[in-house]
Design goal:
185 residues; mainly alpha; two-stranded antiparallel ribbon; 2 strands; 57% helix; 4% strand; globular
């Protein structure tokens, strides 16, 4: 939804999963029982980064968000794929702090997760010392997946090192209306 807003692409958001439930019609579209899933004409597509690449490929003809140059495109794409390692590292902190009751939380798992995410965010911090966006000199598709996780990282009740470049990048993300409306919820 955030990227659709960046593309000025009209869309209809249908909340699914968690408190909203997941019906058989949704499961027929996405057998993984995960979100998101998009429908664009006859295309039904799931997996977040595949969706982002599809939307950019179809609706960003000028290459504003996903560069036409294969080198620039690959440099942005790597952060989209790098985000998978980060998601794995953050999983235990997120599940314990957001999905579990305080009495059921595993403090050691949270601490280990916080330590792993801090190491990965330090990598991000070093990269952002060289350029303002993961996608290069301007915001692009490479910033979207990790931008979502950055909000979670700053929102979780965990110990975080001071990483000024990540903090500055996060402030720039928070200035984007689509980010505020669809990520910071």
């Amino acid at each position: 939804a955030w990227f659709c807003e960046e593309l000025a692409l009209p869309y209809r958001r249908i909340d699914t999963g968690g408190a909203f439930g997941m019906d058989a019609a949704y499961l027929a579209k996405n057998p993984n029982a995960l979100i998101p899933t998009i429908e664009d004409g006859d295309l039904i597509l799931w997996e977040s980064n595949a969706i982002l690449r599809y939307l950019a490929g179809k609706y960003d003809a000028a290459g504003q968000f996903w560069p036409q140059d294969p080198v620039d495109r690959a440099l942005a794409d790597r952060w989209m794929d790098w985000q998978f390692a980060y998601a794995t590292a953050q999983f235990d902190a997120f599940v314990n702090l957001i999905r579990k009751a305080p009495a059921d939380r595993d403090a050691q798992a949270i601490a280990r997760s916080a330590e792993r995410t801090a190491k990965l965010m330090a990598i991000l911090n070093r990269h952002l010392s060289e350029q303002p966006w993961l996608s290069g000199q301007r915001f692009g598709i490479g910033d979207v997946p990790m931008g979502v996780y950055a909000h979670t990282w700053f929102s979780l009740d965990i110990d975080r090192p001071t990483l000024p470049n990540v903090a500055d990048w996060y402030e720039r993300l928070k200035a984007r209306p689509g980010y505020v409306a669809n990520v910071m919820i």
